[in-house]
Sequence to fold (130 residues):
Amino acid sequence: MMSLFDSVAGAVLSKLGGEKGGMAQIAMEMFNQNGGLNGVLDKFKQGGLGDLAASWVSTGANLPISPDQISSVLGSGAIAEMAEKFGIKPEVLTSQIAQYLPSVIDKMTPNGEVAGDSSNLLNTVLGMLK
Fold:
């Protein structure tokens, strides 16, 4: 179910254009499909990468993640669908997510903890694009 927030976010992000605008839309899509920040973090925990995800939430250094790890956590089917939606190859999608996801989650959790407010996501993503 698309909320008004999501459609407004989508409209704003599509106007940004370029790689960063595209990445912002991909981030929104990924969080939407997986139940927000908590859902995404749970997926990483279930995929055995909870320590990586925890490093992005904490105030310390962000551990890197590989495109292959992104693919294994989110599932190649979901990746293929998302890539098709954005008109890019799955391997381009996973490398972009691997590049940006740690800093998106890091910026969404400035105090080293996950707040319940996921509407913060749009502000965070937009803030990264400046």
Q: What stands out?
A: The mean pLDDT is 80. The chain is about 75% helix and 0% strand. The first helix runs from residue 4 to 16.
